[in-house]
Amino acid sequence: MKKVSRRSFLEKSSMVLASAAAITAIPASAQAAQAPSMFVHHVYFWLKNPSSKPDHAKLLKGLQSLTSIEAIKTSHIGVPADTNRPVIEKSYQFSLLLIFNNRQDQDTYQTHPTHLKFVEDCSNLWTKVIVYDSVNA
C-alpha cells in the first residue's frame, strides 16, 4: 500500500469537499433543468363488456403489441390493484403507461403503424378511454 503524507491527504480531501460543495450550491431550478426530459403517456381503458374474458384477452394482446414500438423507453400494462381508499379510481379494466424520451418520440408512436393497427383492431372493445400526458415539472 502506498504511503500518503498528511499534507497530500488534506489537499486531496479539500478538493473533494470543495467539489461536493460546488455541486450542492447549484440552485434546484438549475438541477431540474439538467434532469433528462421525459414524456409520460398514461391511458385508461373501459371495456364495453367488462366481464368478457375474450374481450380482456384481445385488448391485452393489442396492448402488448404496442410495447414493441422502438420509440417507447419504458412500458407497463396494468389492471386495477386491490387497494381501497376514497381517492382510488378502479372502474377501468386496463391501464397503459408509456414513457418516452421526449415529445417527438411520443408523436412518432402516435403515427406508428403498430399503434394505428391497435386502434383499428381494438377500438370496438372499449366505451371510454382517458389519456393523461405529462412532462417534467
Automatic annotation (TrEMBL):
Keyword Signal: yes or no?
yes
Q: Sorted alphabetically, which InterPro entries does this protein's record hold? A: Dabb, Dimeric_a/b-barrel, TAT_signal
SMART domains reported for this sequence: Dabb
Which Gene3D superfamilies does this one have? 3.30.70.100
Where in the sequence is the signal peptide annotated?
1-32
Q: Is Repressor among this UniProt entry's keywords?
A: no
Q: Which PROSITE patterns match?
A: S_R_A_B_BARREL (PS51502), TAT (PS51318)
Q: Which residues form the Stress-response A/B barrel domain?
A: 39-134
Q: Which UniProt keywords apply?
A: Signal
The source's superkingdom equals Bacteria
Record protein name field: Dabb family protein
Biological classification of the source: Bacteria, Pseudomonadati, Bacteroidota, Cytophagia, Cytophagales
